[in-house]
């Protein structure tokens, strides 16, 4: 779907969504940098997650992609055409995309689920309206709720209605702002699986924002990592997890221990840079003469998180055999692997 801007010409050979040097500031001269100098590509038919700490610019980036906010610098293209900014379009937001924001502002609280979804479709073909509404309610497993008012639904159910409403008229891109916020783990996993299936079956492109990368590691095909408005890493989850390009990404994805080269040396690692040591890359062996001591044991269910220190620095370690170590015990640290941050 082309949603064009006057005097624009299509650029060939770009990914589906392509940003060049995108910046957006707030507050005029005392500018708050929301995002700065972002250049990125988002592929068609994939799930791309924008991740980063609170305030890193994720929601701003999503709104810029959709065309809800004006850019201060740079440009964003969709299928090679420039995304219109809010001044260039009567109803802001790209016609090929739909966005589901936090808070479900778009839902009509007093109408029922069916009407909230069906109202997105025209009355010109009532049979198609019925069929498409029914189909998307089934896909999102909320057909049994069709007569319920939004006000009476749980947060997770509302989230599914909001997504159904966004998908019912078959956008090419679905933008999701923190879709798994405030929902429990089992709900999250089934919703993630349902979204993955929709992407696989329909070729939909999904861009989602998350402040908790662990929750999207298994779901996203690509990750874009933001830090204070800058893009500091992009790539596939497995690659970024195992070979993070910087300390921020290592901490965000893996809660990694970041050690200076001097600290690493004390663990027998000889490198000329900082080191990322993921908590699961470390094993412990009890030794009454060891320099390191278990300082805290945090019970996590099927595993424990241990804080181990030598008086100078601490590292976090995952122990998959809970109950083996108690606070105060002295341990040797065995490094399975590490990743040098150059
Ligand atoms: N309308 C606005 N006016 C002023 N500052 C804004 C506005 N929108 C965003 N900002 C600022 O821009 C920065 C990035 O905000 P943004 O909401 O994009 O971050 P985020 O990564 O989505 O955060 P969170 O995870 O907390 O939702 C923040 O410092 C924020 O305070």
From TrEMBL:
Residues 17-253 form the ABC transporter domain. InterPro entries: AAA+_ATPase (IPR003593), ABC_SmlMolc_Importer (IPR050093), ABC_transporter-like_ATP-bd (IPR003439), ABC_transporter-like_CS (IPR017871), P-loop_NTPase (IPR027417). The keyword Transport applies. One of its GO terms (molecular function) is ATP hydrolysis activity. Keywords: ATP-binding, Nucleotide-binding, Transport. PANTHER family: SPERMIDINE/PUTRESCINE IMPORT ATP-BINDING PROTEIN POTA, SPERMIDINE_PUTRESCINE IMPORT ATP-BINDING PROTEIN POTA. This is ABC-type Fe3+/spermidine/putrescine transport systems, ATPase components. It comes from Parapedobacter indicus.
């Amino acid at each position: 779907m082309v949603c064009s801007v006057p005097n624009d010409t299509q650029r060939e050979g770009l990914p589906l969504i392509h940003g060049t040097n995108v910046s957006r500031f707030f507050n005029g001269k005392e500018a708050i940098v929301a995002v700065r100098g972002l250049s990125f590509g988002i592929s068609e038919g994939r799930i791309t997650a924008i991740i980063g700490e609170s305030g890193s610019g994720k929601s701003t980036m999503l709104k810029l992609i959709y065309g809800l906010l004006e850019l201060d610098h740079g440009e964003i293209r969709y299928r090679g055409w420039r995304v219109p900014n809010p001044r260039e379009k009567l109803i802001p937001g790209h016609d090929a995309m739909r966005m589901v924001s936090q808070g479900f502002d778009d839902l009509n609280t007093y109408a029922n689920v069916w009407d909230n979804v069906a109202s997105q479709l025209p009355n010109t073909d009532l049979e198609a309206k019925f069929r498409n509404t029914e189909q998307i309610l089934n896909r999102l497993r909320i057909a049994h709720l069709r007569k319920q008012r939004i006000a009476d639904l749980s947060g997770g159910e509302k989230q599914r209605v909001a997504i159904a409403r966004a998908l019912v008229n078959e956008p090419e891109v679905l933008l999701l702002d923190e879709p798994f916020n405030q929902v429990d783990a089992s709900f999250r996993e089934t919703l993630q699986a349902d979204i993955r299936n929709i992407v696989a079956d329909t070729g939909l492109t999904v861009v989602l924002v998350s402040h908790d990368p662990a929750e999207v590691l298994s779901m996203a095909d690509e990750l874009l990592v933001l830090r204070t408005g800058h893009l500091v890493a992009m790539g596939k989850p497995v690659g970024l997890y195992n070979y993070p390009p910087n300390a921020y990404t290592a901490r965000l994805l893996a809660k990694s221990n970041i050690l200076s080269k001097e600290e690493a040396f004390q663990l027998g690692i000889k490198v000329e840079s900082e080191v990322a040591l993921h908590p699961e890359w470390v094993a412990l062996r009890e030794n009454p003469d060891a320099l390191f001591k278990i300082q805290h044991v945090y019970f996590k269910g099927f595993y424990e998180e241990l804080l181990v220190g030598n008086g100078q620095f601490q590292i976090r370690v995952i122990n998959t055999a809970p109950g083996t170590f108690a606070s105060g015990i002295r341990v040797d640290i065995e490094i399975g692997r590490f990743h040098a941050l150059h």
